[in-house]
Every structure is written in structure tokens, then in C-alpha cells.
Predict the structure of Retrovirus-related Pol polyprotein from transposon TNT 1-94.
Amino acid sequence: MNTHFLLHNITYRWVIDSGATSHICRDRNMYHSYTSLSDYYVMLPNSTKVKIEGIRSIQLNDDIHLHNVLFIPSFRFNLLSLLKLLNENQFQFTMQSNNFVLQDLTTMRRIGIAKQDQGLLFFYFPESKFTFNNIDSCNLVSYDTWHKRLGHVPINVYNLIANKTILSSVDSHFHCSTCQLAKQNRLSFSNPNHFSPNFFDLLHADIWGPFRELTYDRFKYFLTLVEDKSRFTWIFLLKNKSDCAIVIPQFLSYIETPTCKNFVLF
């Protein structure tokens, strides 16, 4: 195999392996903390044992921190365990039209891209774009300014963003009046319905018609009577509007009792 392409820009090009159980790095200078090991070996798929020189953590960029990375200088490339990467971080690995993308599950921000090269899947992690001047500038901006610039985000979301970048710390004494007003709920509207205290104190009447098509019995109007307290409804079919003068008195005599004799009808 031609190994020249494997050694090009090796710091930020990692071969991703879905079957590997551990991350493997060949560059000692990439470790920001390191522990030497002796008499430890890793078994390769071809049944070959390779000595592990050390183990510790590697910070690839602002988003990716690899733990328990095996240091094996005899390897010709850096190996990234996809299973371990996803288990230790809130990431998702998705396939697009021409490549694979690693995203943060919380913010859905793209973290890296994997592309095929001579039968291997290489992962490209962008280097940190923050310099000390950027960091100093971010720290000079107060928390209340960042809170407004970020759309009045809650504190837990701000802390999440601050951990991914470097922003001013949360000011516990700051209270945003806009957020307080936005969280207020409108009081419920008062009920506009006012019902009569007693049955048949009030009746509502309405006539509808004429129908475009007459009924089988030649009716073309109907009269609706609604009792105000119970909302109980009676419907009477009419052939003419003038029939109301007959139907309504008959209805009143029908419902009249010793306890309800006076009605207001409209």
C-alpha cells in the first residue's frame, strides 16, 4: 500500500474504524497528558501483537476530547474508534451524498467530515479557530450583552455555548426585564355568558328560512326556542312565518306550571 498519503497532514486526518474498540495515535506530541505503559499489547485483526507505549487524552479541537487513547508509534496512521467516539460524546454520524458528517446532537452543528481515500475513511477535524486575541475580545463583552446577542437564551443554553467557545461567565445578579415579560402568561378572559338564575326566566327565539327546497310535508321555515339556563332547545317546523303566532302560545301553555308563569321572550 502507498503510505505517502497516510502521512500527509496526519495530525488532523484520522482513519475512522467502526470495528475498533480504542483510539490509537502514533504521534507522541499530540498528547496533552501522558502515562507510559509496559508489557501491554494490542491484537490486530491479522493476529499480530503490537506493543502499547502509553495511554492518555488528546484534545483534537474545541469539540473533540479523546480519552484513553493508545500510543502506538509503530502505526502508520491515527485510528479513531467510531463506537467509542459516539458513546463518549453527544454526537451523531450521518451519511450524505458524497461524505459522512459528524454533528453535535444538542446544537446540530457540524464538527467534522469523513471522506473516502484509497479504500479508507479519513476524518477531517478543523483546528481551533480561536486565538488569544479572540478569547480576550470575547471576555471583554459582558454577560448581559452576550445574552441579548444570542437571542435571550436561558442560562443552561448559554453555559452550553460558553463551554464550546470561551465567553464571559454568567452574572448571577443580572435580570433581563425582556425575558420576565416574555414568560408572563395572559390572564384568562372572563366568561361573557350570563345565564338566568331560574329555569324559563328567559327564552330565546329565532326563525330560519325559507328553505330553498321544501320538506316532504311542504315546510319551509323552522322556529328555534332555547331555554336560557339549561340551553335546552325546541325546534318547530313552519309552513309560513305567521304560524309563529300559533306555535309560540301553544308552547308557553305546554310548559307553564305554577312555579313558572312569567317569561321574557325575544
